[in-house]
Amino acid sequence: MDLTQGAEKHKYDRAKKMMLWFGIISMIMTFGGLTSAYVVSKTRPDWLTEFDLPNAFMWSTLVIVLSSFTFIMAKQSILAGNRRNASALLIGTLVLAVLFVALQFNGFTEIIGEGYYFTGSESSITTSFIYVLVLVHMAHLLAGIITLLVVIYNHFKQRYKKGQMLGIELGATFWHFVDLMWIYLFVFLYFFR
């Protein structure tokens, strides 16, 4: 690769990173707006003050944090040239992502089982906000799982190696953002009832 091609590749890589960060910033603004509306709505007389988050949401938080660690270790394994370990860790990250989704739906089931509905005449503004916040996060999680599947596919096609890590770096950055966003939402919903 000559100097001109190296400079072009650097520009191309930098542009991809900037696009990802613009997307992340817009998602942060979306969640900032939703959580601000939640705070403002807490003053309503029909706000549920005795509502507790299901334990499934706490367990899902632990699972998604663990998935970020497995993703970090997978990246380190690729850099170390240990493809077999990287493969296991990437698959493990995917399994943890699916477990996170299952725990989220279990949490929704617990909420409904306690008689709190998210929509319709039996819903409350509190449960509707939780529903919207978690579902918007789930949409981002779906994007994260698709990203993870692309990273796994490219890993098995042997596209990542030392000096050629842009795809996995972008995927890991987005995955860690999804992780941090859920931690923010969980802490927010736990403390701002």
Describe this entry's structure for a reader.
The protein is mainly alpha-helical. It has a single domain, classed as Four Helix Bundle (Hemerythrin (Met), subunit A). Helix content is 79%, strand content 0%. The chain is built from five helices and no strands. Helix 1 runs parallel beside helix 5 and helix 3 packs antiparallel against helix 4. The longest helix is centred in the first third of the chain and has 39 residues. The mean pLDDT is 89. Pfam families: COX3 (PF00510). This is Cytochrome oxidase subunit III. Its main location: membrane. It is a multi-pass membrane protein. One of its GO terms (molecular function) is cytochrome-c oxidase activity.
Q: What's the helix-strand series?
A: HHHHH
Q: What is the CATH topology classification name?
A: Four Helix Bundle (Hemerythrin (Met), subunit A)
What CATH architecture label applies? Answer: Up-down Bundle
Our count of domains comes out at 1
Classify the secondary structure makeup into a structural class.
mainly alpha
Distance between the termini: 57 Å
Q: What is the H level of CATH, i.e. the homologous superfamily?
A: Cytochrome c oxidase, subunit III, four-helix bundle
Provide the β-strand percentage band: under 5%
The total of beta strands comes to: 0
Query: What's the helix count?
Result: 5
Largest sheet entry: none
Average residue-wise pLDDT: 89
**Low-confidence segments:** none
The rough form would be described as: elongated
Helix content: over 70%
Radius of gyration from CA coordinates:
20 Å
CATH class: Mainly Alpha
Keywords: Cell membrane, Membrane, Transmembrane, Transmembrane helix
Family: Belongs to the cytochrome c oxidase subunit 3 family.
Membrane topology: Multi-pass membrane protein
Pfam families: COX3
